[in-house]
Predict the structure.
Amino acid sequence: MKYSKIRNRIHDFCGGSKWRRIFIYHFVGYLFVRSWHLKRAIGAWARKAPTRPLHILEVGGGLGQWPYYLTRINKFWNVISVDDDLQTVSENNAFFHKLGVSKAVFLHQELTEYKNEGAFDMALLVDVIQCYESTPDLLECVYNKLRPGGNVILTTFTKTKGRSFVQLHNTEQEEEIYCKDGFGMKDLKKQMKLQGFRRIKAHYFMGTYGLLSWRIGFQFPMAATRTSFGLLFFYLLPFYYLIALPLCGILNFLDSHMANPDGVGLIVTGEKKQDGDEC
């Protein structure tokens, strides 16, 4: 995947410090409503998962926050993350080496070239499906990587609001490239069913409450730092977030615990058929 200037700024802030990176993990996880939805989905899967050591595939390593989260839930889980960005893979492997975590490994490889069929209990795809030209080929590839009964959890943008949201807030000529304008819920569920997934569930995230949280927690402070008083506001950010973070937490809780009729994003889960299942 190709990453944005925001990602590079986060890397500059961390500066090789594991504690700063862990702080970013928790800060972003609290501030962004998508993380609230994903953690609920991962928790629901984990409660029904076998008690043996599990093998998890992540597509698109990003900052490494999800392998970090998964290995914190259960130290016996094995996480493989594949990404075609060599810098991302190198930085994440170095970080987890510093932590002394050997159960999370990042590979510089395209998913389609990674030959490990039927090996994983769960696949996690966070905002990557829209970056692949062929959705059926990607879903088929993920399906083949799962064991019978294995699950997939994915997030993506919606066709109705997602792409317009990205374009609206893409004020710094982001480097990230999206091949698609998002997905409709019914269409994506249909494509997953055609590839063999069953028990498919989907819901919207970043509805009214989540979008308001985004504006309070991210959009407004970032816009304020670009004004003529930006330097002053930068030094006032800790005091701003003393008020904003509790409010964002309430809004994110509401967004993740209430049904959104529409939203910027979709979170979809599905299961690979067990051996002997007819449908």
